[in-house]
Amino acid sequence: MMRIGIVGGGIAGLACAEELTRLGHAVLLFDKGRGPGGRMSTRRIQTSAGEAYFDHGAQYFTVRDDSFRRQVTAWVSEGVVAVWPSAGSDAYVGVPAMNAPVRLIADGQTVQWGMQVMQIEALEGRRWRLVLDGSDAVDVDIVVVATPSEQASDLLVSVAPDFSAQARTVVSAPCWTLMLAFAEAVAVPQDCWRGEDIIGWAARNSAKPGRIGLESWVVQASPGWSRLHVEAEPVWITTVLKEALSNMLAIPLPPVVGEICHRWRFARSGADGSGALFDRNRRIGLCGDWLLGPRVEAAWLSGKALAEQIRLDEGSGLIEPVP
């Protein structure tokens, strides 16, 4: 049995952890977020008219791979995923929130939320020490980095410069996201809109399966526009995106009872094409959507692929627990 530390509790890290736990390893996950979701997070805000809920990261996901299809089918049967026809016949969402399948996996794992790994240090005997912000360090046999490429590069620069350099070549696109709550319905017949200029996506979030709360809309700026204005003030972003939404829908917006703006610096990953990376000699691995493609499915597949690489190397005797 190996003691494995995973940096990042998103879908990639959790998929990897789920498989490694099934194989009998002791897996510890560390995530700086407050709870399950990562880029599949859900935000709740209290307004004068009641609560509103927003899937402010990934809006839906699709299925191409057979193994992921089997997983999604299981999630559907468990009631944590459903088809969202408004976004397409192959569009799935978490129920009652986008983070539902992530939360389901996390419930079976040992995850420390709100815990940021500040540094990875090499120890004698090919072991690793994870230096945590505000907590005691943790020593592990294998370390897995399951974060966006830019964060992985920064974390690995001193201990795995080759992996760090590889991650640095994969650039993520930012995304400004505006969440709007209304006391009355926005009077348009459709629930999803795609654009190319200022707005890349806008949707009536409250129309997704299993949602409760007020009329809620998620407006995501296009990658190009977000990149151009990545350092802009949220107040200005809010004003511009509200005006752009009104223009896109060709109607005045009803009175807004709640609004919040969020900047995703690493919203949409690039695609390295490696699938997953593992160095058996250094006992360090990487997984994430950036190693395969900018999709929820790719993150899940990457996590599973890394767990499989670790299993194969362990089974061949190439890696063994350090006494």
Give structural notes.
The protein has 323 residues and is α+β, with helices and mostly antiparallel strands. The protein folds into 2 domains: 165 residues, FAD/NAD(P)-binding domain; 153 residues, Polyamine Oxidase, Chain A, domain 2 (Alpha-Beta Complex), CATH 3.90.660.10. The protein is built from 8 helices and 18 strands. A hairpin with a 4-residue loop joins strand 13 and strand 14. Helix 1 packs parallel to helix 8 and helix 4 packs antiparallel against helix 5. The mean pLDDT is 95.
Task: Describe the structure concisely for a colleague.
This protein has 323 residues and is of the alpha+beta class. Helices cover 28% and strands 30% of the residues. The strands form 5 sheets. It has a 6-stranded mixed sheet with strand order 7-2-1-11-18-17, covered by helices on one side. The protein has a 5-stranded antiparallel sheet with strand order 13-14-15-12-16.
